[in-house]
Amino acid sequence: MFDRRSLLAGAAAVASLPLLGRPARAQIDTLKIFVPANPGGGWDQTARTIEAVARMEGLIKSAQVTNLGGAGGVRGLPTFVNQWKGQGDSIMVGGMVMVGAIITNKSPVTLSQVVPLARLTGEYNVIVVPAASPIKTFADFTKAMKANPGAVSVAGGSAGGTDHILLGLIAKAVGVDPRQTAYVPFSGGGPAQAALLGNQVTAGTSGWGEFEEQIKAGKLRAIAVSSPARLPGIDVPTIKESGVDVELANWRGIFAPPGISDSQKIAAFDFTEKLAKSAGWKAECAKRGWSDEYLAGDAFARFLDADVKRIEATLKDIGLA
Amino acid sequence: METLAALGNGFALALTPTALLFAAIGVTLGTAIGVLPGLGPALTIALLLPITFKVDASSAFILFAGIYYGAMYGGSTTSILLNTPGESATIVTALEGNQMAKRGRAGPALATAAIGSFVAGTVGTLGLTFLAPLVVDFALRFGPAEYFSLSILCFVTVSAVLGGSALRGLIALGFGIWLGLIGFDEISGQERFTFGLNELRDGVGVIVVAVGLFAVGETLYLAARHRTEEGVLPLTGSLLMSRSDWARSWKAWFRGAGIGFPIGALPAGGAEIPTFLSYYTEKKLSKHPEEFGKGAIEGVAGPEAANNASAAGVLVPMLALGLPTSATAAIMLSAFQSYGIRPGPLLFEAQADLVWGLIASLYIGNVMLLILNLPMVGLWVRILRIPKPLLYGGILVFATIGTYGISNSATDLVLLYVIGGIGYAMRYFDFPTAPVVIGMILGPMAEAELRRAMIISQNDLSVFVTRPLSATLLALALAALLAPPLWKLARRRR
To answer: Which pLDDT score, from 0 to 100, does residue B298 have?
Structure first.
């Protein structure tokens, strides 16, 4: 982490960097990456991969990753907004989970206070049932849910997270009160998968990557994915194909701190674009199973706005906002 | 036979100089971080993840596994010597271990912990090698109803640490349950008891509470009472285990391993629950129950074996199903992804060399840990020759730095000393402190699993008795509660 002294030193160093006034293609000396999650998770892996790729591509000389995890990113966000203010060469990793956590935690600091740089990657959810389940298709699933929502238990991550939001969206779209659904929150992918493999719950949902190997091994049956179109190389229908108008991506992106100058902003956007379009980045995404969802600048800002509204409405339906 | 051939291949991989070097670095590093309170294996491995960009997969995993096993060994050292648990799985070790140290028996306590860890680590690794498919099958039968019943069975273990007054013990337990409920509730998504403090949203760390109650509370208590004393802790008897120490330890090691391995393999079992159950079992089976609370060696041998066997157990669902069931396993699995390996049920077949090399390195790491730790016993006990005021001053510094190391949060330091103050008051008014920690770990688990079970069963409470495994666990809990008084009654009648 950092203390006040190194922070001041950092701020002074940033202020004195001649590089910031220069044209945007200059190499960044030390990229500072703020991760509002603990080491090891998805955001942390995104940060470490950005570091490795940016260094390999010669965009930066070195990077420094700071983790401050907790409460879906809500614990770290105020630190980034208040203490990293005005520091060029700094980015924060975040994503859809944070949007939901800000709403459920009623956080006074929100993503409107940082500069959205780009959406980088996304992961779509898959809905699965145990291999032995009588439910064969997504239509069977919604039919069972309509008949008795309380009897269709669905395992996923913490309450109010991506998985819960997806179930809320589906319930509403098929005319079931989202509060009546039997959502079973687990503290992580492992326990949720174990509940599915042990036939403890009717169905489950999580990111495709989380369940991929179980699906391939035939232990879980994938009945739908939450993407707008079928995922390349994956023979699973979308939710939309079943006539239910729902799609959802658990996206991850990067943000710059508030209070940076226009030239710093240009440099940050330039860095983001070079990173996201580099061969190294695409190769890492492929290796890690992240789908490349690059969307930069104003387009990303508009997307973010719409996503916040949609998630807030869904969380209200579920009864969490 | 197939397994043996695969294991042979694994040993061929794990005995190469590079692999041995990584295993040695891993176990040494693991022991060191186990000794430091706060810095756990999960965090250490996470910090080392960037090396996956540099070294090959099998070296990285041998290193990580060494850290994981090593931390389980190292955690006991500070529990025994300084009453400052380095890991939540070694909290129970502090109960008897520190009492032994205070009576000059630190040497045998450290030795039984090290040898017990070796025995249980090896038993656990054997289980991982030969029983993984069976154990996985059993583990998946545990649903929320079973976990709730398991936690009820564990609550019985509180009776082993209640001390003189059941009322005081239960108040301490209730306080612990309350501490455990602070923070974000994952079932309802709401905050509880956070008083609007950002830092409390993720709850209170169990290590902060354990270190605060045990180490800080005790230091304050001693400082308040022995103001002028300059004494040194006595160091009587041998550093080695006596014949009777061996006789009392070996059964506890195997019982601890027998409890730790299967529970570690449960997706939500964890490493703490087997230590509670082992402690309770040892106290009930011991021929010297009166020594418990005053330094009974079985109370160190059993729980230490249990936590090491559970570490091997955790690897069962991770390797057999690709399920990360602990923070450390989750981070190891994310390391697999850096190599483009997707962990899953096909891992054993798809990455046979990697998996068997890893398993073989666990056997080797265990031997290395024993060689590393036994000679260290003599060195460690010298810490206790430090005069008391300096020693306890040092413990405070150590506890403070360690706590700050967990989260770099000043709030945790405030919390540490507030809880330390509470620990002092509890000691002063003769409240036992161990139930606080047990309540803190079991309370939230029981609550979350009860609510999950109720969501699934649509609020039908009968699931706890209609599901055979759950009913068995509840029957065990009931028997443990009712058998002793009934037994007494029956005797009196006769």
So the answer is: 94
Q: Which of A128, A153, A202 would you mutate first to test chain B, the one with the most B CBs within 10 A?
A: A153
**Alpha carbon of A113 to those of A37, A260, B222: distances in Å?**
19, 12, 50
Element (H, E) at A31: strand A28-35
Q: Residues of A numbered 211-270 whose beta carbons fall under 8 angstroms of chain B's beta carbons: which are they?
A: 212-214, 216-217, 219
Chain A / chain B CB contacts < 8 angstroms: 144
Q: Helices B2-14 and B17-35 sit at what angle, rounded to 10 degrees?
A: 80
Residue A295: C-alpha distances to residues A121, A122, A156, A292, B195 (Å): 9, 11, 28, 9, 39
Q: A4-122+251-318: which CATH topology? A: D-Maltodextrin-Binding Protein; domain 2 (3.40.190)
The 10s digit of each residue's pLDDT in B37-66 is 667 788 788 778 778 778 888 899 899 989
How far, in Å, CA of B145 to CA of A109, rounded?
39
Number of structural domains found in chain B: 1
Taking CA atoms, B457 is separated from A150, A189, B212, B464, in Å, by 9, 22, 40, 10
Closest alpha carbon within chain B to A203: B456
B147 contact residues in A (CB cutoff 8 A): none
Ramachandran assignment for A276, one of left (phi > 0), alpha (psi -120 to 50 degrees), beta (any other):
alpha
- φ/ψ of A118, rounded to 5, equals -165, 150
From chain B, the residues in CB contact with A163 under 8 A are none
Residues of chain B positioned with their CB less than 8 A from the CB of A214: 321-322, 344-345
The sign of the torsion formed by the CA atoms of B198, B201, B203, B205 equals: negative
Note down the domain range covering B101: 2-493
| Assigned CATH for A123-242 | 3.40.190.10
Q: Hey, are the CB atoms on B186 and A158 less than 8 Å from each other?
A: yes
| B60: chain A residues, CB-CB within 8 Å | none
Residue B46 to residue A188, Cβ atoms within 8 A: no
Residue written as token pair 């609370």: B293
3 state DSSP class of A93: strand
In this structure, are residues A248 and A166 in contact, taking their beta carbons and an 8 Å threshold?
yes
pLDDT at B97: 93
User: What are the φ and ψ backbone dihedral angles of A132, each rounded to 5 degrees?
Assistant: -85, 0
- Hey, what are B78's tokens? 């500070």
CA-wise closest residue to A162 among A251, A239, A228: A251
Which residues between 29 and 58 in chain A have a beta carbon less than 8 angstroms from any beta carbon of chain B?
38-41, 44-45, 48, 51-52
B37 vs B73, residue with greater confidence: B73
Q: In Å, what is the CA distance from B487 to each residue of A4, B481, B494?
A: 64, 11, 11
A127 strand-pairing partners = A205, A224
* Token output for B209: 């509470």
Contact A104/B at CB under 8 A: yes
Domains A4-122+251-318 and A123-242 share a fold: yes
Q: Domain map of chain A by residue range?
A: 4-122+251-318, 123-242
- What is d(CA A31, CA A39) in angstroms, rounded to the nearest whole number? 18
Interface test with B, best of A214, A311, A315 (most B CBs within 10 A): A214
End-to-end CA distance of chain B: 56
pLDDT exceeds 70 at position B227: no
DSSP string, B303-330: HHHHHHHHHHHHHHHHHHH----SHHHH
Please judge whether A190 and B144 are an interchain contact, meaning their C-beta atoms are less than 8 angstroms apart: no
Contact B189 A150 (CB under 8 A): no
Question: Has residue A20 got a pLDDT over 70?
Answer: no
ipTM for the complex shown: 0.85
Half-sphere CA count of B457, side-chain side, radius 13 A: 19
In chain B, whose CA is at the least distance from the CA of A102? B189
